[in-house]
Each structure stands twice: as structure tokens, then as C-alpha cells.
Amino acid sequence: SVKHLNFIQTLTNILVVAIENKRLGKDSVRQAAIKKELEVASQMQHMLFPEILPNDSQLEMDAVYIAHQEIGGDYYDFIRINEQEVALCMADVSGKGISAALLMSNFQANMRILLSRSTSLADLVKELNTKVNDTAKGERFITLFVAKYNIITRIFTYVNAGHNPPLVLSADGSVNMLRTGCTGLGMFEDLNNVKEGVVSIEPGAILFCYTDGLVEQENETGEEFGVKRVKEILQREGQYSNIKQLNHQVIESVREYKGAKEYVDDIALLTCRIF
Prior knowledge:
Layout: H1 5-46, E1 59-66, E2 74-80, E3 85-93, H2 97-115, H3 121-136, E4 142-150, E5 155-161, E6 167-169, E7 175-177, E8 181-182, E9 197-200, E10 205-210, H4 212-215, H5 226-237, H6 243-258, E11 267-274
Parallel strand pairs: 5-8
Antiparallel strand pairs: 1-11, 2-3, 3-4, 4-5, 5-9, 6-7, 6-10, 10-11
């Protein structure tokens, strides 16, 4: 047995390597399948976003979405209610990945159905809160900004349900934050006190909506990008850039700011100039 020990050890090593290679091969095939499924899921998720945003004499809009992973939980939408009214929204599911994306797709479907039949934004938000509670079972919550704009009266009505306050850049260069609303959806069973904000929009004003991945992005020293930097970009570039260029400038500023640091979360922007 001693005479054949080297042979046996060599054969054993070959068998071990062969078994390990087979396992790695199976893992590689499995990983490739998962990657393919995520790519398909990502394509399906992008189909939930509006394919065309308005760019006419009344509204100029542009949106950007950067997923932290293949798919994520950020959502934006634009809906024409009738000839006089349009609606827009931005939402963010707590957490990341597939589970957040699944909850968001369910939320998008409920949003579009309920928006068409709700008498007010306050009622809409209350119904959406019930839907989120039924679906998420207290495991997740959603922050939401939803608004209606009447093109004729120029009245902008909104509810901010725990979302990062959108910014409104006026023609005079001042920036206001849209905070009025309630807590996030799915945090409590009932939302009894939902407040609607009402704003009269001046010609040329810019509405800038975003998710927390933008302002919470850190640089290499751990400092967040912050709302102040966003305001400065709006005030510096808003009056001289079209909306697509403005969004590009914001994203490029974040990329330069973070340096080698990885993105910490999904980032979504929905920006609108109202003429």
C-alpha cells in the first residue's frame, strides 16, 4: 500500500479537483441564469415608467433613473387626467432589490387605478396607504410625492407622504420646498390627517423631484451630497439650461462628488419646467 501511496494521493487530488470544477460549473450556470432573469426584470421594470414625457409649450419634462442594483424600488410617473389636468408622482420603497421592486410594481398599478376615481389627493393617499399595508404587511413602507396641476388655472395641488421635499425654482431664483402632507405609506394602519398643499405656479418655474439616493450619496470622506448642493445647481443652471441638461448636470455633479465611492442607493429624478 505504501508503494502505491503517491499514485492514490494523485488520483484523489484529481478527483477532488474534478468534483470542485463540476460544482463551480453548476454555480456559474446558476449565476448566469440569475443574471439573465435580473436583466429581464430590469427591462420589465423600465416598462412601468412613462415612455414619453411632455415637451411642448406648456410642460417640459425629463427623468433619470439609476438603479443601485439591477432593479430597485424607486418609481416616478406622469399621467394626463384630462385636457386641463395632469398628475405626476415620485415614490421610494424602503429597502432595495427584488422585493422592493415587486412592491413598487404593485404600487404603480394601484396608483393608476385609484387616481382615476379618487375625488381628492388626500383620499387617494389614504387608499394607497391601505393597499400598501395589505401588501407589505408592515415589512416595508413607501414614501410618496403626488401632485395634480391644472394647466388653465395654474394651481398645483400636492401631498407629500414622507418623501424628500421637491424643490420649486421660481423665475426670481428663489427655491421653495414642498413639505405639506403626512407620514409615509405603510407606517400606520390609518392616515387620518392628510393635508393637501396648494401652490400657484408662475410661468417658467421648475419643479425638481428626487429620491433620497441623490442627497444621501456620500463622497470618499463620508460626507453626504445634501439638498444645499442641489439648490445651488438649480439656481446656477436652471434658467440657462433645458430640463434634460439640468438633470444631466445634477447627475454629473453627484458622480464627481462621490469619486471612487459606490452608489449607496437608487437615484431617481423627475424635473418639470412649467411655462
